[in-house]
Amino acid sequence: MKPLKLWKGILMMYAAFTFTSCCQDEDIFDTNNLCGTWEQVYDKGVVSEGYIQYTFTPLATTYGTCSIHSYDVFAGDTTYQRTYTLTKDGHRLNIIQRQYGENPQTQEWDIQKLTSSRMTWTPVGRPDIMLNYEKVIRH
Q1: Is 52 exposed, middle or buried (0-12, 13-18, 19+ CB in 10 A)?
Q2: Three-class SS string for 32-78?
Q3: CA-based nearest residue to 119, from 22, 23, 37
Q4: Whole-angstrom Cα distance, residue 41 to residue 54?
Q5: How many whole angstroms separate alpha carbon 27 and alpha carbon 4?
Q6: 43 phi and psi, to 5 degrees?
Q7: Measured in Å, how far apart are the chain's first and last C-alpha atoms?
Q8: What is the mean pLDDT of residues 40-63?
Q9: Highest mean predicted confidence (pLDDT) among 41-45, 68-72, 74-78
Q10: What is the value of pTM for the model shown?
């Protein structure tokens, strides 16, 4: 009878460890996951009249190109081409709009979460605004 209880205990510990390991894998912050197309998702109950997608194409570890595609039911489709930079830790994202003869305009974001399927970021200095994205296309 004791060997049966021992094996049950070992099996339960193994199941708990396996479940915990799977959950932790999804929470790993990895800047390599930025590559691909991300679409903004909204909280339940929020109705959107369009969508916005960011497609990040890295040229190196800390910079690359960013295509921003938005659709609005009133304005239609619009696509912008930008460049981006990342800090070495990957938590600060700068999306840069170059302008001829003027200083470039930069949008700064703090990336809170970046996994293979989910990304969350906030505008720098505005932690009260949190934007959520799901990966729709992997590159």
Answers
A1: middle
A2: HHHCEEEEEECCCCCCCCEEEEEEEEECCCCEEEEEEEEEECCCEEE
A3: 37
A4: 12
A5: 35
A6: -65, 155
A7: 54
A8: 87
A9: 68-72
A10: 0.75
Residue-wise pLDDT for 89-139, tens only, equals 889 999 999 877 788 899 999 999 999 999 999 999 999 999 999 999 876
* Consecutive H or E run containing 4: helix 2-26
User: What is the helix (H) or strand (E) element at residue 65, kind and residue range?
Assistant: strand 63-72
- The one-character DSSP state at 103 is P
Question: In this structure, how many other beta carbons lie within 10 angstroms of the beta carbon of residue 65?
Answer: 13
Instruction: Look at strands 118-123 and 50-58 and give their pairing.
Output: unpaired
* % pLDDT > 70, the chain: 78
DSSP 43: -
